[in-house]
Amino acid sequence: MMSARSLDLADLPVYSISNRAPLWWGQVMMCAIEGSMLCMLIAIYVYLRLGVDIWPSPGTQLPLLTLPALAWVPLVISTLGSYLASEAAKKDDKRGMILALALNFGMGSLFLVFRFAEWRTFNFTWSTDAHGTIVWTILFLHTFDVIADLLMTLMLLIIVASGKYGPRQRLGVHVDSVIWYFLVAIWLPLYAVIYWGPRIIGSP
Amino acid sequence: MIARTMEETRDVLSRTWSSRGGLAGWFSITTHQEIGKRYITTAFIFLLIGGIEALLMRLQLARPDNTLLSAQRYNQIFTLHGTTMMFLFAVPVMEGMGVYLVPLMLGTRNVAFPRLNAFGYWMYLMGGLFLYAGTFSNSIPDAGWFSYPPLSGPQFSPGKGLDVWGQMITYTEISAMCVAVELIVTIFKMRAPGMSLHRIPMFCWAMLVQSFMVLFAMPAVMLASTVMLVNDRTIGTHFMNPAEGGDPLLYQHVFWFFGHPEVYIIFIPALGMVSSILEANTQRGIFGYSAMVLSLVANGFIAFGLWVHHMFATGLPQIGEAYFTTASMMIGITSGVQIFCWLATLWTGRLRLTAAMHFVFGFIFIFVLGGLTGIMLASIPFDLQAHDTFFVVAHFHYVLIGGALFPLFGGFHYWFPKFNGRLLDEKLGKLTFWTLFLGFNLTFFPMHVLGLNGMTRRIYTYPAEMGWGPANLLATIGALVIALGGIFFIVNVLRSRQSGAVSDNNPWKAGTLEWEPASPPEKYNFELQPVVTGRYPLWEAPEKRAAVTGMREDRREVIVTSVMDGVPQFRMVLPGSSIWPFLTALGFGIGLAGSVVWFSWYFVASALGMFGLIGWFWPYEPGEIEP
Which residue in the set B185, B613, B625 is minimally distant from A25, CB to CB? Predict the structure, then answer.
């Protein structure tokens, strides 16, 4: 390579714990994939709903409102945990990261407790009728994502607590918050469709 | 720092970017050239398998009342043919070309997520092996490459063939999404300093648009095949069961929401290849760069508004169908813009008729014919007549083979010296082209006539009185000619790899960065990462060229630049080689394979996958903690 001129980049920093990091972009793309899948599930819900006159089929009770409404409390608090964790990661504050990740993980887990308790109140399964099929599918896939991300959060917590971390792991903490915000945000339309949709539109 | 000689720099770089030796090392490789080559090689093997399946079908149809294949065997073979070509050949081969070429074209050393790249390849390989493991244990799907229920449902397709089909899609789509994410981020964030948006090579634009389409289309097919179809079959959900409020048409909507963009996912990278070949062989930049880019992006959007034109015969409301007719015709405009830009490039450039250029001309000829029958099929009254006939088979082979396979072969002839350091034989390449071109038209042109004469697709035989014998025989002869072209191609590749003319860095005198390093490039691509001052860096005057200094060579450092203008933001250290992506894919693979029999194996897949991910991310070495 015969280069007449050169651009010296020796003074550039070697990492950036911010939205400029490729990993952050990668995480946003992950959200796009998950988002298009979950939005497609909403479309399927509506499609199936419009295909029948009675929804759900007689004898099936719509999912009750109390537990999922209460579950919002730990879920919203958990986002505070992920926000504080990503801020602490930017400042390289070990104690702050541990506390915030623990808050995120604890509140997320509490949300799951509410969700599993709610499932015990259902009087239908995925093989009862089309309503049962789509409701269980949405809940299963969302829960699956939530569990996967909580396990990731737990792993980050262990890594940070063990002290074996550097900028790369701190960046991990920062982008972990992105997917968590997404999972909380996407739950809003899913929640509205499952619990309020059939009560507001088309109920007798 | 003491200034190193170029020799020493190369030595350090080479050690930094090498993997360990041995078998474990081979499974740990994360360099993009190696992964790209694995994708391309594996995909070509599947092309061969899919091609043999096609030949079997053609032999069966060569004469009326033939008994070479039974009806059931024929159903299985056309299903395997379509599935193999779409999921195991066409998409992965384009991804492979992107994985190999994009980092080189952008002037960087690897993709943004090298381990994800390796993971994606292993998932793809396992999906292919899974489908054919099912095939050889007689669990063979037989409901067509799109497997419509109720035919594919539990009632009419007992056995495990359809479950294997549905789950195979999960593997390959995970792979495609991995490549999509890493290519988008690589193109956005890892371009050479100075490569602003309007300096990105056309092929990279094509891969960018394709990757975004993968992001939004592939989740739909995973829902259709894995969540809806397989669960209806294995755990009794009712997505497609009308008795319990489901609807078989729902499957078609979700499937084609993926299935139509899928065609463009295959075809858009091919457009990028055509532009690259044209630029080098006319020695000028592409005519109407901005118009080309905008057309590509528009194609990406419009492709999502076309899916119902696969469903015109299902009795949907006509006002809705009219919208999809309009969209189907609209895409003719953006495709037309590109064709005219290429013609203008040809017109104003200094044409060099290489083998690759032959394939480009073949592409324009065949693709335009396929586009014309596409416009015909976009009209609902015509579509209702031609639906599910050989006219449609002719149409989509003109579009897919003309639109994707010919450019791919052209691209392969064009980039082969970069892959291997030796040129393909030009004469044999041109012979390959003419054989394929002749064979292709001989095979598929008669199918237009057959379709208009009422021959439906997916029938395993026909009585002599229908009068379809001669045209079918012609098509079969054509298929054998295509096979001959395939043999020429394979001979050319195998021979040229060993004894072809040695290629220098830039045998075609092209302008884009992949031609700057040696052929084949070292594992680190560039000794000094380039700085870009124009759209075609290699055509710039030498005194305008520049390179990056001050990077460390003893670790895998790359430059992160801004999305819009390619301004350097920081240096980043890429992770090293690792066997964990392979192990993670293996864990997912085992669990997903089990899930076609027991739903609970999804939890096995998750547990093994999670275990793999922990190994993947765990900081083992000090370098992974403090760069």
Answer: B185
Going by C-beta distance under 8 Å and a sequence separation of 6 or more, which residues neighbour residue A68? A114, A115, A118, A191, A195
Is A12 within the bounds of a domain? Answer: no
Q: ipTM exceeding 0.90?
A: yes
Sign, CA dihedral B405-B407-B410-B416, equals: negative
- Residue B571 has phi, psi (to 5 degrees) of -95, 150
| Residue A15 placed within a domain | no
Please spell the DSSP secondary structure of A84-100, one letter per residue.
HHHHHHHHT-HHHHHHH
Average pLDDT on B552-568 reads: 93
Q: Report the residue from B186, B227, B610 with minimal CB separation from A151.
A: B610
B223, A44: Cβ pair inside 8 Å? yes
Distance from CA of A158 to the nearest CA of B (A): 10
Taking CA atoms, A8 is separated from A111, B191, B561, B602, in Å, by 51, 16, 14, 50
Please give the pLDDT value at position B323: 85
Contacts of B109 in chain A (CB under 8 A): none
Chains A and B form CB pairs within 8 A to the count of 206
B interface mutation test: which of A20, A40, A158, A175 has the most B CBs within 10 A? Answer: A40
Determine the structural domain holding residue A131 and report its residue range: 34-200
pLDDT at B260 over 80: yes
* pLDDT, position B450: 97
The model's confidence at residue A1, banded by pLDDT at 50, 70 and 90, is very low
Average pLDDT of B496-503?
Answer: 94
Interface with B, mutate which of A133, A146, A154, A156 (most B CBs under 10 A): A133
Q: How far apart are the first and last CA of chain A?
A: 76
- Assess if residue A2 is contained within a domain: no
Q: Which of B177, B215, B547 sits opposite A1 (nearest CB)?
A: B547
Question: What's the average model confidence in pLDDT over B282-296?
Answer: 95
* Separation between Cα atoms, residue B124 and residue B173, nearest integer Å: 8
Interface test with A, best of B223, B565, B614 (most A CBs within 10 A): B223
Cβ within 8 Å, pair B570-A169: no
Whether residues B610 and A132 touch (CB distance < 8 A) is answered with no
Select from A10, A22, A40 the Cβ nearest to the Cβ of B190: A22
CATH superfamily of B31-577: Cytochrome c oxidase-like, subunit I domain (1.20.210.10)
| Residue with tokens 């002719």, as numbered in its chain | B394
- B62/B64 Cα distance (integer angstroms): 7
Alpha-carbon distance B318 to B312, whole Å?
Answer: 9
For chain A, the domain total comes to 1
CB-based contact B604:B586 (threshold 8 Å): no
- In B, which residues are within 8 Å of A57 by CB distance? 244-245
Supply the Cα-derived Rg of chain B in whole angstroms.
Answer: 25
- Per-residue CA distances from B378 to B119, B325, B392 (Å): 39, 5, 11
CA-nearest residue to B505 within chain A is A1
**Over the stretch B461-487, which tens digit does the pLDDT of each residue have?**
999 999 999 999 999 999 999 999 999
CATH number assigned to the domain comprising residue A91: 1.20.120.80
Four-residue CA torsion sign, B281, B282, B283, B289? negative
* Inter-chain touch A9–B227, beta carbons under 8 Å: no
Each residue's pLDDT tens digit, B39-48: 999 999 999 9
Contact A36 B220 (CB under 8 A): yes
Chain B neighbors of A149, CB-CB under 8 A: none
Query: What SS3 class is residue A64?
Result: coil
- In-domain check, residue A17: no
Of B426, B276, B292, nearest to B358 by C-alpha is B426
- Which one of A6, A8, A9, A173 makes the best mutation probe of the B interface by having the most chain B beta carbons within 10 Å? A9
Domain limits, CATH 1.20.210.10, in chain B: 31-577
